[in-house]
Design goal:
Elements lengths: L1 H27 L7 E5 L40 H8 L19 E3 L17 H11 L4 H6 L1 E5 L2 H10 L5 H24 L4 E5 L8 H6 L8 H24 L4 E5 L1 H10 L8 E5 L1 E2 L16 E2 L6 E3 L7 H13 L5 E2 L3 H6 L30
Parallel strand pairs: 1-2, 1-3, 3-4, 4-5, 6-9
Antiparallel strand pairs: 5-10, 7-8
Helix pairs in contact: 2-10, 5-8, 6-8
């Protein structure tokens, strides 16, 4: 009996010691020299698309990059979420696109490509599994470094936009089946990431897709959101937590966190002025009812807003730099109301290869009103 009590006491001391060490590191910003690896679609693309096509790319010309005077392939007026995360991690160099021939990959690489999807991408893009294949072939980082590094993911938008367009009359069972197929493929791919050395997984849930300016414009919903796409995004997001939790239980040392991007965006759409956004329904750059099409195209006489920082969306599908910075701060350091089961700052200092002590809990922010399309203010 005394031996059992002693073992329990020693175990508690070890756990408490680890947690105290983590707390001191977090408060003191004593972050390890971790790498950053990003995967996904155009929201995370830092220029990979340029190396896959000879076609004209509007994101490489003005007014993209307007806030930084650098139209470099990012779908924004400036920096995007992975850029800010790298800054918060104190990475001294810009994490380059993985397809850049002469990139400095000592602190990681960005594999995200515009038009990427989970279930299959067009020839001039790369699906998530193809991004994994590129990561595996590069082989520049040892297992110890990878176990300390963050792996960021934002993908799925293309899958659901395409499904809604091709299946406008799909019933609930067809929608559920499609969502299940997307999430199952993500789980399969993440298992392979784990096999190839990844340990710290950070997921950004999908935005309220039905509220994107281009969706409001294409489906002619006016001030209302297109609820079919919002429902698909919510069904997808609800499966991400249980999926990652299952992977953590199946694979020793698998660590993860989830940023509730859906409801963080929802709150800003509903209560824009509270977040200093004057316009949360239209894009800053483009043409059409919601200014959502054609930004950067030479044959389109796009409108450009006077002050992009007052807009939540820069073009029809992507956020402004100001919004990206706010979302990156939430992802990196917000409380469990927004990020669960830990934020990125906590995840990066969590001891590598150690099993998680917590599991995913739906953030309280998910209880915010989903009646975005009705214009009801958030409480």
């Amino acid at each position: 009996m005394e031996i059992k009590r002693s073992n329990i006491y020693v175990g508690m001391v070890v756990v408490v010691g680890v947690l105290l060490k983590m707390t001191v590191e977090v408060v003191g910003q004593n972050l390890p020299e971790a790498g950053l690896f990003s995967f996904g679609d155009s929201s995370y693309d830092v220029g990979n698309k340029r190396f896959l096509t000879n076609a004209f790319l509007p994101q490489t010309t003005w007014p993209y990059g307007k806030s930084t005077d650098d139209p470099n392939g990012r779908f924004s007026d400036g920096r995007i979420i992975p850029d800010f995360i790298a800054q918060f991690l104190k990475i001294p160099i810009a994490v380059p696109p993985a397809l850049k021939p002469d990139g400095n990959f000592s602190r990681g690489a960005n594999f995200a490509v515009a038009d990427a999807s989970v279930l299959g991408s067009p020839p001039e893009s790369m699906s998530l599994s193809q991004q994994l294949s590129k990561f595996r072939k590069m082989g520049l980082w040892n297992d110890d470094y990878l176990s300390k590094s963050l792996f960021l993911f934002y993908i799925g938008t293309e899958d659901y936009l395409d499904f809604a367009k091709k299946n406008p009359s799909a019933d609930s069972s067809a929608q559920q089946a499609f969502v299940t197929s997307v999430v199952s493929k993500i789980k399969q791919d993440l298992g392979l990431f784990y096999v190839n050395g990844a340990r710290k997984f950070a997921f950004q849930t999908l935005a309220p897709l039905g509220c994107l300016p281009i969706v409001r414009q294409d489906y002619k919903t006016g001030d209302q959101c297109y609820e079919t796409l919002n429902d698909l995004a919510k069904q997808h997001n609800e499966k991400i937590g249980p999926m990652l939790d299952a992977l953590a239980k199946e694979n020793p040392g698998f660590q993860y966190t989830i940023f509730d991007f859906y409801h963080s965006t929802t709150r800003r759409i509903i209560g824009g002025l509270s977040y200093r956004f004057l316009n949360t329904k239209n894009a800053c750059c483009g043409i059409g009812s919601h200014n959502a099409f054609g930004c950067g195209y030479p044959n389109v006489h796009s409108n450009l807003c006077d002050y992009q920082r007052s807009y939540l969306f820069f073009d029809g599908r992507h956020n402004s730099e100001k919004a990206n910075e706010a979302f990156a701060h939430l992802f990196f350091a917000a409380d469990p109301n927004v990020v669960s089961p830990m934020n990125l700052r906590e995840l990066v200092v969590y001891p590598p290869n150690m099993n998680m002590l917590e599991s995913y809990q739906t953030p309280k922010s998910a209880a915010v009103s989903d009646s975005v399309s009705m214009g009801v203010a958030a409480a």
